[in-house]
Specification:
The chain is of the alpha/beta class. It folds into two domains: 175 residues, 3-Layer(aba) Sandwich (Rossmann fold), CATH 3.40.50.2000; 173 residues, Rossmann fold (3-Layer(aba) Sandwich), CATH 3.40.50. It is built from 14 helices and 13 strands. Strands 3-2-1-4-5-6-7 form a seven-stranded parallel sheet, sandwiched between helices. A six-stranded parallel sheet has the order 10-9-8-11-12-13, sandwiched between helices. Helix 3 packs across helix 4. The model has no long low-confidence stretch (mean pLDDT 92).
Length: 356
Amino acid sequence: MLSGGGTGGHIFPAISIANEIKLRIPDAKILFVGAKDRMEMERVPKAGFEIVGLDITGIKRSFSKDNLLFPLKLFRSIRAAKSIVKEFKPDVVIGTGGFASGPTLYVAAQSHIPSVIQEQNSYPGITNKLLAKKAAKICVAYDGLEQFFPKEKIVKTGNPVRQDLLEIDSKRDEAIEFYGLDKNKKTLVILGGSLGSGRINEAVEQDLSALLGSDLQLIWQTGKYYYRKYAPLERKPTVQILDFVQRMDLLYAAADFIISRAGAGTISELCLVGKPVIFIPSPNVAEDHQTKNAMAVVKKEAAILLRETELDKLVQVVMNLKNDKELQKKFMKNIKSLALPDATKDIVDEVMRLIE
């Protein structure tokens, strides 16, 4: 049983783990547990797996009437998770983060079923800190998590990444053709995360003329929510606007520079890809974990950190990076040294040991 969702950063690792389990045990029965009305309820069936939903949401950071309903929803979700676990009888439960993983892993622990936490961030949220006491193994992507989790349970595996990203250098020509780009121009890719970023989109819109005036071409992922607003700005081939990226391998292959949020899964992919990156962490996440994720890379002199409060400097930072070949080489070398390409296999190795 796997539980994780809310954003692509939680869903994709769970699907990767499930695919690897299926590869090793073709007749394995796999069930996902997600949150109703979240994107996992659509993405997981498309990947070929069954999913059931819990009526659970997170606590909003600002005051909201919805927070008053949280205890009731949590109680109902735990009760529903008990029924699901009792009926499915899993040998192991794997949590990759998101609203539904808390109740699911809690019930697994109460039922004496071994559980694995796949902690993607450099700074874990409160739910995983609580669940860690009962987990059998905790697979992490960063050093230094002994301050949050029992040391003897930690295994550094990295975060699951798309295996089609391993050979993107050979896909450059295909990517240029796929996106209809000018092969003689440098390409700036802008990623706002699976849900998109209003602040990044606003900054790019404001600076669009300056970016294009520097002889750059853009692939700009706005997110589904913002797509209609910014779609009229598309000017193929110079500015291409996407709501969601279907072929991440070709997107990364086309990129010369990348502006990105700092979700844990995205950072793991970018380490593998090895392109110069400007991270703009979302401040609207628990424990400000995206900033901490980005700082773990920046401290290795492998990327640039630009805070949302500094977006007025966006063009200047992009231009400095574009014009500094030595800095580009340093970033590419250092970020690639952080890659852990075998994360999915290593996580499933731990799962297999528990099953055995």
